[in-house]
Amino acid sequence: MSVRYATAADVPTILRFIQELAEYEKLPDEAKATEEDLQRTLFGPRPYAEVLIAEQNETPVGFALFFHNYSTWLGKPGIYLEDLYVQPTARGGGHGKALLTQLARICELRNCGRLEWSVLDWNQPAIDFYENLGAGPMEGWTTFRLTGEALERLALENSN
Amino acid sequence: MSVRYATAADVPTILRFIQELAEYEKLPDEAKATEEDLQRTLFGPRPYAEVLIAEQNETPVGFALFFHNYSTWLGKPGIYLEDLYVQPTARGGGHGKALLTQLARICELRNCGRLEWSVLDWNQPAIDFYENLGAGPMEGWTTFRLTGEALERLALENSN
């Protein structure tokens, strides 16, 4: 069992894991990314996120995709874990924990104050796992999203 | 009325706005950042976030602090707005809308699919303003946070 940083050669594997995770989340049609998208945005001149790969006998069995967020209260960056996934056949082997442990180490090394992520409210096994690590839910805040035509419309406003 | 990118010379202003926003959010003691923290993490060799300043008669009256997040479903970056603040005496003058409009334009220019932010559940004036723009709440997901001793403890786990 080991964890390493992904390289551009892992793009097909990362895409497969993203699609498998969307299926597990019961939203398979939402995963619209292509290999070209991942190549450009993760391994191009301006990478927007980083990826860790969990391996068993040198075969990838899971991944963690993360980026830096920022706390204005702390005046320092944090780490936001966008996706954490371990293939069903490899579950129970400690890969999820190994990926999170590596992320906590990266947090400490980079002087980040927080490790954050989102979980689907019905995913009780994941919630139990996270609370067991000492993580807690952020109560009292709701995330808003502006996308598609509403985003385009705002961009075209003649406000100044 | 105008919006411009902040420079290192704006650090004292940005810190004052962060503290004023924490007071408005009824959590003034949470704003622990110092000028040195902001200087290093926003204007050092590796900036972790970007800042827009709203001005009235060339005097700063508000700010927006944002960074790039990432959607694995879209295979492209988004923009996450961490703080949006306009001073009470300047409210109603369109500065909040001007900051959001500029962010929507940056989204389009950088090929980002989404503009996201979080709002306190009791802040109904803000929620009304956001829904009026066409933004909607993300239902069914909860953000978890690991910080402090629990984060240090995980970093020290001997998992591989």
Helix/strand layout:
Two copies of one chain form a homodimer.
Chain A (H helix, E strand, L loop, with lengths): L1 E4 L5 H14 L10 H9 L6 E7 L2 E13 L4 E11 L8 H15 L4 E7 L3 H9 L3 E2 L3 E7 H8 L5
Parallel strand pairs in A: 4-5
Antiparallel strand pairs in A: 1-2, 2-3, 3-4
Mean pLDDT of chain A: 95
Sketch the topology of chain A as an H/E string, one letter per element.
Answer: EHHEEEHEHEEH
Identify the CATH class of chain A: Alpha Beta
Assembly state: homodimer
Q: Could you give the order of strands across the largest sheet of chain A?
A: 1-2-3-4-5
Summarize the structure in short.
The structure is a homodimer of 160-residue chains. Chain A is of the alpha+beta class and 160 residues long. Chain A has helices at residues 11-24, 35-43, 95-109, 124-132, 148-155, and strands spanning 2-5, 50-56, 59-71, 76-86, 114-120, 136-137, 141-147.
Question: How would you explain this protein's 3D organization?
Answer:
Two copies of one chain form a homodimer. Chain A has five helices and seven strands. Chain A has 160 residues and is an alpha+beta fold. A five-stranded mixed sheet of chain A has the order 1-2-3-4-5, with helices on both faces. In chain A, strand 2 and strand 3 form a beta hairpin. The longest helix of chain A is centred in the middle third of the chain and has 15 residues, at 95-109. The first copy, chain A, is globular, with a radius of gyration of 17 Å. Chain A starts with a strand and ends in a 5-residue tail after the last helix.
